[in-house]
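FORM 7B: Structural annotation worksheet

SECTION A. Query
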Amino acid sequence: QVQLVESGGGLVQPGGSLRLSCAASGSIDNIYTMGWYRQFPGKQRELVAVITRAGSTNYADSVKGRFTISRDNAKKTAHLQMNTLKPEDTAVYYCTMNIGSWFSQVDYWGQGTQVTVSP
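SECTION B. Predicted structure
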């Protein structure tokens, strides 16, 4: 059984920074893409950033230049460094990892962590 555990959310003032982390545990062959999504109240979950196993990244336009995704393959962790936070970044942030073997992969999700940007 694979489990993703997120940490690092909380309350921060506009212009501040937070660093989210996500650690995978359990029976893991390979971790392919890692990503972060967020969900606003009453809205569908949306992509924030993804990183491939080789380190290629992609970001939502709304966070480009402010957020940085990274990964540590040995530690099976993903991070999201969030700088210059804005009130509109307030959401529940979810970590996801595509895990499995070359012929079969499953997308796993964390439980979500609340990020609130407010004076």
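SECTION C. Observations
The CA atoms of residues 52 and 105 lie 14 Å apart. The two ends are 40 Å apart (CA to CA).

SECTION D. Sign-off
Analyst initials: ____
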